[in-house]
Amino acid sequence: MFNTMAKNRNGFYVKMKFFPTKNPKPEKAKPFFVKHFKWILWFSLSFYFFAKFLNSHETGTSIIKTIKTTTIINHSHRALSESKVDNGLLNGLKVYVYELPSRYNSDWLSNARCRNHLFASEVAVHRALVNSDFRTFDPTDADFFFVPVYVSCNFSTVNGFPAIGHARTLLSSAVEFISTELPFWNRSNGSDHVFVASHDYGACFHAMEDRAMADGIPEFMKNSIILQTFGVKYPHPCQDVEHIVIPPYIPPESVKSTLSKSPIDGQRDIFVFFRGKMEVHPKNVSGRFYSKRVRTEILRKYGNDRRFYLKRHRFAGYQSEIVRSVFCLCPLGWAPWSPRLVESVALGCVPVIIADGIQLPFESTIPWSEISLTVRENDVAKLGSMLDDVATTNLSVIQRNLWDHKLRQAVLFHDDMETGDATWEVLVSLSKKLGRSRRRSRVFSE
Fold first, then answer.
1. d(Cα 74, Cα 368) in Å, to the nearest integer?
2. Which GO terms describe its molecular function (predicted)?
């Protein structure tokens, strides 16, 4: 019992007494659901939103995986950019670079042209690997062995072009040196050794196709991997060896300088561009016609066509013409490939490839069909109408693909290898050739 005083409306105090009931009637027990309704409701809502979050997250992950898979299968130019950032492609790859006597490489650099002419990828790859994080100084840890021999720097005093008659002798001497100094060549019979053959017919080491085919690949190199600019999609004795097709060398500094003056998406007032050797009557060299007469046909058909900017003479600043052009003709010369291919891609001019059966550099990652046009050698007389059709239909799409800076990166070599550049692509290609069993055997031996 307890007392309390309460004030009523009239200001009087009323004294009230509360007495508990002697036998209070027990309160009827509430059902569990009613008694704990608030907690059950809170728990149910929390579980609902948590489950919804998990479901959304799982769905999003599946979509991402599907997109990545589709990208890789299609080899679109998104696949190219993925290969640039996915260091997993090169995870653990190690290359041993032989330190050969200077007569095999650095002595040739006394001629400044050696490191800058169109065959200079042999120098660029060497320099990039020497400075690379993928280089190992322990040959027992190596996946591949790079043999740095420069054979394209012996310039002819007659015409100034590389004379490679000494190539087989120099390379043979280098192989003899490394096979007597270290055991790794003999251990694999040279199958994990990498050479560069950056001239017209690659590992056949001759500028004329019939002579190159007759001479074939030197016997001592037939088990090795050759990085070569020459590549075709039909059987040919000069690629009858494990090989990787690489781009010819164009100095990245020259491209950077040109683009600093004329942006890649700037005005292009030249419709079709070509500067190079074109003969009214192609020179007959021991029965061989230069360019299979393709360039002669282009000159004959379009020499007076105002849409075509065709020049036969050398001009040191010709890159300034490429960056002003919509289409750049890349016809074959003595061999199918041409430095114009790299210059066109690097400077944003749509390459028009005229070389039947050519295999292009890094075809597994560079989407050539999305950034270039291919014209059969026998169809050069139709070039005008073909290019007009492209200009009025899908030119903007091609240019948008072509102007992706990753493509420019993929065709250029740098002294210090950069992620996604041409040497990087070489290593990606080598990594794909590296069998899982080889990796496992190296790990177990450790």
1. 12
2. xylogalacturonan beta-1,3-xylosyltransferase activity
